[in-house]
Amino acid sequence: MSCIDTLVTPVKKARHQLLYLIYGNQDVYRREAKFSILTVLSQAKNGKRPAIRILTDRPQDYEGWPVDTVLLDEATLTRWQGQNGYHHRRKACAIAAGMQLAEKTLFVDTDTLFTSDPNSLFKHIDVNQSVMDRFEYDWKDVFERPDYLKLARDLSVHGVSPQNGFKLYNSGLCGITDRDSALFEESIRLIDEWTADGFEIHTIEQIALSYAMRERPVVEARKHVYHYFAEKRFFHAMQAFFFSQHGEKFSQRLVELCTDVPRVKPFPSAWQRLKIKWKLRNQSGAMRKVGRDLLYGSAAPDHPYYSVCRHEWWECASREILRWDESRQKKLLEQSRWPKQLPRPDKPEDEKVIMNYLKKRVEAAR
């Protein structure tokens, strides 16, 4: 029996489409999707852009936006998750179903920013050639990791060994044609096989897709987009500030304003980073990491969008501190002034702000 649904939708088949999947009522993911779409529109040349389709259970969130919405009901979302409780199976099913709405489809994770014309990626999508976000590693490089051992046993059934492994790609972007149904039939079947007795890897979906694509050329999209999956907190803070300032009602002005938002997280200048490295020269290990994150947050560039996410550097430091035992935490934090074991930030006013932030985070975790 086929794993692939045929969506009941009035959307006409397009030549090229960008496809998003978003469900649930969390503001942060809605903002991710909308900001990603704004970057698409800001980069499209001469007003030419592919169709933008959103598979969602909340189409009302995108009223007035230049997108087509395809309603997903609860039954579809439940069916797409499957019987093994693997959340990301829905993504594979969404691509499989959505690809039928265009000749060429570029599926886009919502935490993706376009840094060049999206149309340029479609020329790399063809029969027997796909686009993926980026190459991450070879199977031979990870098969012995503790969390990969179960998957290694499952893959050995298919004759896969370190010697004849395959390349693993991040599927934050996935470009395919409407002739690639078999690719996703195999991918979804493998997801079900590899999650049947539990799973320890949250990226089973992209490993299954990479395996299904093992015989075809794959073009990386990383030169055209920035997928900030490892830096979400910084971008969430900037996007929340952007929409709080300008609202979510679509306008061409909103497209223009989105270009003011940085496309990288707030690193201090090269000179400031060198100064911080020098200040921490006598520290090592966890204390060096904590000091770096605290000072990086204090030395964030003078920019309104960077200012709202300085605390995310401090959050990185607090997470490291929370890994310590209680006595070590007290030694650092239960002082009336800035800890002697850490160099002071350049902005004296940040000393109290940082210490209050760290103390509240540690107290809340107890």
Give an overview in words.
It is globular and about 65 Å long. The chain has helices at 27-43, 74-81, 89-98, 119-122, 149-156, 181-194, 204-212, 232-246, 252-257, 270-279, 285-298, 304-307, 310-321, 326-333, 349-365, and strands at residues 14-22, 51-56, 68-71, 102-108, 112-114, 130-138, 167-177, 218-220, 225-227. It is α/β, with parallel strands linked by helices and 366 residues long. The chain folds into 2 domains: 14-227, Spore Coat Polysaccharide Biosynthesis Protein SpsA, Chain A (Alpha-Beta Complex), CATH 3.90.550; 266-365, no CATH class. The chain is 43% helix and 15% strand. It has 15 helices and 9 strands. It comes from Pseudomonas aphyarum. This is Nucleotide-diphospho-sugar transferase domain-containing protein.
Task: Give the helices and strands, then pairings.
Blueprint: E1 14-22, H1 27-43, E2 51-56, E3 68-71, H2 74-81, H3 89-98, E4 102-108, E5 112-114, H4 119-122, E6 130-138, H5 149-156, E7 167-177, H6 181-194, H7 204-212, E8 218-220, E9 225-227, H8 232-246, H9 252-257, H10 270-279, H11 285-298, H12 304-307, H13 310-321, H14 326-333, H15 349-365
Parallel strand pairs: 1-2, 1-4, 2-3, 6-8
Antiparallel strand pairs: 4-7, 5-9, 6-7
